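Subject: design request, 266 residues
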């Protein structure tokens, strides 16, 4: 499947997706990403723990939706560099017929389209390079060709919305996407917070902004607002490692540093 980049990769500026890959121990980053990520790790070493916990939450949420809620369609915005198992691998292990569309605005991700396309023959996977702040995501050809929007879709916004500042209306963005999905669709969301160590995490946000990476850390109340009008799955909006954990959480909440939730559109 061809999906050429709309722009070349700027290797001189850090990108949050590549920095996230660095935190996870990946190798798909440039020197600018490494330098900025190392500055963050030096000041906030728990960022690596948070990245791993965030990834684990996504896996648990997808398994829950595929196994317990019968979801067979997934739209993942802010995909980032593929890190196995990817979302489609988790879903298709449970339901091989699952359909998944990945969307990201980092041209480097295009280099990994082949990895994102390796799904089961019964299901389908697709990738689109697009910007959630600029493009009509639900009208993308890859979305329309892969997903049936008359049927429920799980919208995955994992570690994305803290890069959307208030000026870009993140709540309106999420509501617009959900309004375009069928009743019975789900929102899967994780969001970094400054609620545990306000001054330290505010400094973290400022470090990103100085490198041209905009966004906002939000409180639990602000994160919960994304689920207004949705039916939250238990246990509601909680710190990431406390959402249906596979084993008793041992990490302190402050070390994880983000809130999560999964909600169903009535």
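Subject: RE: design request

Done. Sequence follows.
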């Amino acid at each position: 499947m061809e999906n050429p980049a709309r722009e070349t990769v700027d290797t001189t500026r850090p990108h949050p997706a590549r920095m996230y890959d660095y935190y996870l121990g990946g190798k798909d980053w440039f020197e600018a990403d490494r330098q900025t990520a190392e500055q963050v790790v030096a000041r906030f070493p728990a960022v690596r723990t948070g990245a791993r916990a965030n990834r684990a939450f996504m896996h648990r949420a997808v398994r829950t939706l595929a196994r317990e809620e019968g979801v067979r369609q997934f739209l993942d915005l802010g995909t980032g560099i593929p890190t196995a198992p990817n979302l489609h691998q988790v879903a298709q292990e449970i339901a091989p017929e699952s359909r998944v569309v990945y969307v990201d605005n980092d041209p480097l991700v295009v280099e990994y389209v082949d990895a994102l396309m390796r799904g089961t023959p019964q299901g389908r996977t697709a990738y689109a390079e697009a910007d959630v702040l600029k493009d009509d995501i639900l009208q993308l050809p890859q979305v329309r060709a892969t997903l049936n929007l008359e049927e429920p879709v799980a919208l995955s916004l994992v570690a994305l919305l803290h890069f959307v500042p208030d000026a870009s209306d993140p709540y309106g963005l999420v509501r617009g996407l959900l309004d375009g999905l069928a009743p019975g669709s789900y929102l899967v969301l994780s969001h970094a917070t400054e609620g545990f160590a306000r001054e330290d995490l505010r400094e973290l946000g400022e470090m990103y902004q100085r490198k041209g990476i905009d966004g906002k850390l939000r409180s639990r109340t602000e994160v919960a607002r994304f689920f207004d009008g949705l039916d939250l799955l238990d246990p509601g909006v909680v710190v990431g490692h406390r959402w249906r954990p596979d084993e008793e959480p041992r990490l302190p909440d402050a070390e994880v540093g983000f809130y999560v939730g999964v909600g169903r559109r009535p």
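Confidence is low (pLDDT under 50) at residues 1-6.
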